[in-house]
Protein 1
Amino acid sequence: MSFFREDLDTLRRDPRVVDFIAQRFEPLLRRWFRAEVRGVERVPDGAALLVGNHSGGFVTPDTWLFGAALYRARGAESLPYGLAHEVPLKLPWVGDLISRVGAVRAGHDAAHRLFAAGHKVLVYPGGDIDAFRSSFDRDRVIFGERRGYLRLCLREGVPLVPIVSAGAHDGWLVLSDGRWLADKLNTRRFLRTEVLPITLSIPWGLSIGAPPGYFPLRARILIEVLPPITFDRRGAEAADDAAYVERCHERVHGEMQSALTRLAREIRER
């Protein structure tokens, strides 16, 4: 019997868990972070690809805040399924929790099945390089060279909805994303990660490698759903056109970065 979870592709969302988080846990997060979620009415009905910037390591308070706000405003049918890295999904406690709120192993096949059933899908294209970026880069959207999210969107022909969060990276201090260390240790091979962050957090103090969780410092989080984006071309031919994919990426990244800069300025000016 394996210690790690193996049913990573099964849809296991439990409405009771979702409701408990929305009614009991999320209000605590909202008060602690003085959080505000704007624009949930922009999330369309039916299949759509929700694209967010990723913050806060494995804690990601903005993910919980956005999901609960959407649940309260639009109902359970509007909640997206999240494409998640298989490492946290495999962990017995963490994986069980996030799968019960709608996480499945990341992959285009999983996304295709979800879209075909009319579901929404939430992705964080930057993944580890965004979630563990240096605190000095906290107001940047970092996707690197990753364009799979756009090829998926074009191939499936669904609208793309940017979700931009500011402030969620302020709950800890990331001194370095540790890419140089990850390269030396070849963590990409056995952990499927390009970073090995060096962080300061409560209660772990100075840590090398991502802490499994931490108690976030009090910060202010602003989350905004931007208007859905549709592209002139769609289908396999558009998805295979590298130049077109890059132009679409520049549009999406530019709109998200502009919104993050604006929200971060609003936080700092209060």
Note: The chain has one domain: 15-172+219-251.
Protein 2
Amino acid sequence: MNSEYGVPFFFFLNERYKAIKVGPISLKKNVKWSYELPQNTNRHFLRTKLREYGVDGEVVDIFMGHWEIGQEPHNPFSTLSPQDYKSNLEEPLSKILRNTGWKKIRGLG
């Protein structure tokens, strides 16, 4: 997913202003936590909530980035319809945002 500036928005920059992919190792190195939580706490929370709201496990796996070749949600040749993908996730994600008090950042998706 890209920002309005045409660059990925989940990244860090190194000393030479090159993008560093965000992942558990780069998070641990670049983010100072005020209290210790496992690195994937946010992913566990999101996965749990999506399943609680009845999203199919396969769709949750794909949303979390665990897809097989041919299932990529935004690939034009995917076996997964982007409209089905969206319709399965839109309402539950809106509920999660509403119930946690988080706000969508305008212009990002």
Note: The mean pLDDT is 79.
